[in-house]
Every structure is written in C-alpha cells, then in structure tokens.
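Re: the 137-residue chain
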Amino acid sequence: MSATATGGSTGTMRILLAEDNADIARIVSFYLRNMRNAEVVVCRDGSEAIAAMTQQPVHLAVLDGSMPVADGLTVLHWMRGQQEHVNVPVIFLTANHAQTFADECLAAGAQLVMTKPFNPGLLVRQIRSLLVPGGPE
C-alpha cells in the first residue's frame, strides 16, 4: 500500500484507489494527485483496501471490479456493513462490460460504474461531483 498526498492537511479529501493493474493505478493516481486537496491511497487488492480503510476512513473509493484476494464487490459489501463507511461514495472501474455486473454494483451501493478503457478526465470530473456536490472543483 502506498499513499501520495497533495494539498494541505486541512480539508484534504482522502481517496482510496484499489486497482491490481499497475499501469491503470499509475494513470489514475496521476490524475487524482492533481486534484486540489486530494490524498490518494493506492491498494493492489481488496484486502489491502479493507485494511487501509480500517486504519483511516476515506471520503471516496475507486474500486476495480476484479482483483485478487477480494474483488471490488467484496470491498463494497464490507464498506456498506461498516458504520463509518456506509455512506462513502464508490466508483467502480471494471473490464466487465456486462450490464448485469453494473446493475449488481449499483444495487450494492456504488454511485457509478465505468468500464475500461475509460476517460481519466471524466473519472476526475465524476469524483469531484461526488465529493463536492453542486459542481466541479
């Protein structure tokens, strides 16, 4: 697990990224690090994501649909069972293009499902809209 912070500690939004593909994690991290007041915690699998959130709550989670140890849905179900994470917005990044998978993610409490390949700029705009309701940063 690694953390990268930008901005000051006051008003910092902690974003968890759980992604087992190193290239995708690097790309998403690059874009998220450029958000004002964002701290990004990168995890390689769902187990690391759960451990990271146990140590410190997050404001938003970006989860890969398919990861080793624990997949994104497992992490989301765990989050929704934890009082401190029950209302945390979740975005799925997935290579699974099946509508049934997207429906399952949304029914479990995800706010958005984006399929890979995806537009990183659109992902950042969606994150901003979820973290700062009413408009982009």
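The radius of gyration is 13 Å.
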